[in-house]
Fold this sequence. Notes:
The protein is α+β, with helices and mostly antiparallel strands. It is 38% helix and 20% strand.
Amino acid sequence: MIAKEAVEQAAYEIMFKAGIDIPDDYLAGIKQMASAEDGDLSAFVLEAMLENYEAAKEDRRPMCADTGVPRYYVKAGNEAKLEGGFIALEEALRSATARATHDIPLRPNRVHPLWRTDHNNNVGINAPEIEYSFEPDADWVDITTVHKGGLFGTDYRMLFPGDGIDGIKRFFLDGMIAFGKRGLACQPAIVGVGLGGSKDTCMVLGKQAACLRTVGDRNPDPKIAELELELQELGNSIGMGAMGFVGKSMVVDCHIEVGYTHTGGMPMSLHAFCLSSRRATVRLHADGRTEFRTDPNWFTPYMRRESVSWEMPASAKRSA
């Protein structure tokens, strides 16, 4: 049985980790970009980012003044038992958000859309968001928090089958150029692409692709993996670098996730994560152990299953 108090304490701790500590995979990606950037202002921004990361880590405070809007992704093992059930889990996550907003501190960004009511703790109606997935043959619960900017860096377009790969590339370039010219994203960033599904699923997949996969991770479909690398190269070839200055540092990595869609369409969403890539994960075991990491491992083989029933593929068994 996983105790409610353990859930709240673990969530509280990953809020600190996400708000302050830059994941190693993203940090390595930024360092690689900084070493290759030849645009003067873009290179200056990248070096300043790296200095800010170190200062934030040393001072134990958020690197960016806009700490985004906290949200959670919960992956529950099918055999997991939670004290008080999922209602208690959600109460624990909301409490951890309120406490961490005050203690880190995080900027209290959440307000009512009409009345602008502000509880000063990032908690309110449908806030923080909590998304769920499940995993067979497991008795643990993974909790990931992501602090993503909540205003810009997102776009959607209904493409059609005839648009093909060229249409995907065209929309990707349109989005990257618009993000850079209009200041709609903080480059460089991990860019997520959602392809297919219904419109809402398409948007969800794209955001998860941006926020829940690590730099260097490739989609298991080799053709999709190839397209990820092509889009990353395209994004870095439009003449824009860090913060939209002249350069070649727009996309730290590109991740694509897909969902089966209506036969007549090919919806596509585009999402740029924040330049601080704020995410952290904890696994809670029934025996009270907690394990912290920065790779959410959200897109498991089970999550990407195509068939009605589930049996782990032999390749996944070998890597497990």
